Amino acid sequence: MRYAHAVDEVRAAEAALMARLPEGTLMQRAAAGLAAVCAQLLGGLYGSRVLLLVGSGDNGGDALYAGARLARRGAHVTAALAAQKTHPEGLADFRAAGGRVLDYARLESLLSPGEGSAPSSAARRAFEGTDLVIDGLTGIGGRGALRGLYGALVRALPEEAAVVACDIPSGVDADTGEVADTAVRADVTVTFGTLKPGLLIDPGAAHAGVVELVDIGLTGLPEPAVIAPATADVRPPRPEAETDKYRRGVVGVIAGGARFTGAALLSVGAALRGGAGMVRFASAARVVALVDARWPETVTTVLPEAAPGDDTEPDLDAVGRVQAWVVGPGLGVDARGERLVKATLRSEVPVLVDADGLTVLAGLPAGVRRALLDRRAPTLLTPHAGELSRLLNVGRDQIEARRLVHVRAAAAGLGVTVLLKGSTTLVADPGGQVRANLTGTPWLATAGSGDVLSGLAGALLAQGVDAADAGAWAAHLHGLAARIAAAPRRGLAPAPITAEDVLAALPEAFAQLS
Ligand SMILES: NC(=O)C1=CN([C@@H]2O[C@H](COP(=O)(O)OP(=O)(O)OC[C@H]3O[C@@H](n4cnc5c(N)ncnc54)[C@H](O)[C@@H]3O)[C@@H](O)[C@H]2O)[C@H](O)CC1
Ligand SMILES: [K+]
């Protein structure tokens, strides 16, 4: 499991610890950890060329002390001072270790733009041959777009150099993972004490590369704001020897309609492969026929079409007993869809609402929606940014840029567990803790992939897994399956995949759980 704490919490824990330790101890611990990772990446230090990007705060101090350690072990280290004033003791130590300083005025003239906004040839020449860059421009004190020389410096970095970010890639918001404009793209981020949420959430996560945690002795941290399960933390129930199909859990899927049928097939397939003992499926006759043909192990029910104007609630008892419902994939957003969403939410078992089911919910008057979601059994909503945008009445771009803020707002506002799909899938409980998924891959951005996720998460709900774990574990397995499908053998470059391929790889993803 990886844990991330908000900046305010890190600062509070740091202050308590600093009060008990000699001045500078924590920075030395941080710098030692940073230097060790850099030394390992470089292999031999003698003759290697290291460039420090030094900002005005303690993040720059860490970089200077780490640079001094590398210089003492034979590296050629240059510190580019991107601020007029940088950490004085760190700079003095760096100079004493034989480090070379590119001061602010010299850096400014080097970075003065050449043609257009491209870095000048002088800057390119100055940084040529760098093996490793240590980014110490901003850490947890960074706010908004990189200002002054910072942005231009980042844009002038040589492409071939390895980049190690100190604490967090500069330009990434530590609390949210937002990137305002230019941000450092690191190969490795060496972070101190605990992870920061921005390292787990895109676009920040994509900028962080591999995240190495250095223990600096921070204690007394509160509950983490964000957690990211590792594969070993994903523990769906295993059937016991004397179990039977009913005890393993029955999942009911209500999907497909007049327009769409494929979503129902994918969702049912994933529910079957998600470990439940049985899948019941209910829909219109045409969809039921297709499910019967493709997944004969499913127990199906044709739901009679209501006459126009008849809004009596569908009889879900006719479908049979289930331990969880999945409602929405390909359902349609008409009166029929609305009646089915309402009926499942009025049941007393866990309900997962996805896709058209979410659009139906978003279209209901707020009071009706609130009453429907005010249930005793768990409720899991699985929107992508567009669907959440309709539920929250917030622009889709806003949601994509500030995923953490909005998934939390949705869970708190609607009083249910919300799984926000996307480049980093996040699952928020109304209580506030967020789970981030680390197995996602851009290959999953393909039609039908969400339908697979809904069936899988529904199967976990039916097995008694709570809503937040069901969502997070389903996202984890879904990502693993996509990776397996895209590159089935080690060393193969990933190839484009379909949702069917993800579905087919689910058993192997389960097999990777210890
Ligand atoms: N937390 C710990 O336990 C430890 C943290 N260490 C390191 O210290 C930094 C945090 O240092 P701080 O001085 O508070 O902030 P920063 O260095 O991140 O930056 C503040 C500095 O930067 C300027 N600034 C902020 N945003 C921008 C911007 N967008 N563009 C330009 N300039 C910006 C701001 O004005 C300030 O002057 C933490 O991350 C660790 O690396 C310790 O060394 C170990 C213990
Ligand atoms: K940094």
TrEMBL record:
InterPro entries: Carbohydrate_kinase_pred_CS, CARKD, Nnr, Ribokinase-like, YjeF_N_dom, YjeF_N_dom_sf. It comes from the Bacteria. Residues 10-224 form the YjeF N-terminal domain. Keywords: ATP-binding, Isomerase, Kinase, Lyase, Metal-binding, Multifunctional enzyme, NAD, NADP, Nucleotide-binding, Potassium, Transferase. It catalyses: (6R)-NADPHX = (6S)-NADPHX; (6S)-NADHX + ADP = AMP + phosphate + NADH + H(+); (6R)-NADHX = (6S)-NADHX; (6S)-NADPHX + ADP = AMP + phosphate + NADPH + H(+). Residues 228-513 form the YjeF C-terminal domain. (6S)-NADPHX binds at residues 58-62, 139-145, 150, 167, 263, 330, 384, 451. Its cofactor is K(+); Mg(2+). SUPFAM superfamilies: Ribokinase-like (SSF53613), YjeF N-terminal domain-like (SSF64153). AMP binds at residues 421-425, 450. One of its GO terms (molecular function) is NAD(P)HX epimerase activity. GO terms for biological process: metabolite repair; nicotinamide nucleotide metabolic process. Its EC number is 4.2.1.136, 5.1.99.6. K(+) binds at residues 59, 135, 170. Binds 1 potassium ion per subunit. PROSITE patterns: YJEF_C_1 (PS01049), YJEF_C_3 (PS51383), YJEF_N (PS51385). HAMAP family: NADHX_dehydratase, NADHX_epimerase. PANTHER family: ATP-DEPENDENT (S)-NAD(P)H-HYDRATE DEHYDRATASE, ATP-DEPENDENT (S)-NAD(P)H-HYDRATE DEHYDRATASE FAMILY MEMBER. Catalyzes the epimerization of the S- and R-forms of NAD(P)HX, a damaged form of NAD(P)H that is a result of enzymatic or heat-dependent hydration. This is a prerequisite for the S-specific NAD(P)H-hydrate dehydratase to allow the repair of both epimers of NAD(P)HX. Belongs to the NnrD/CARKD family. Belongs to the NnrE/AIBP family. Homotetramer. This is Bifunctional NAD(P)H-hydrate repair enzyme. It comes from Actinocorallia herbida.
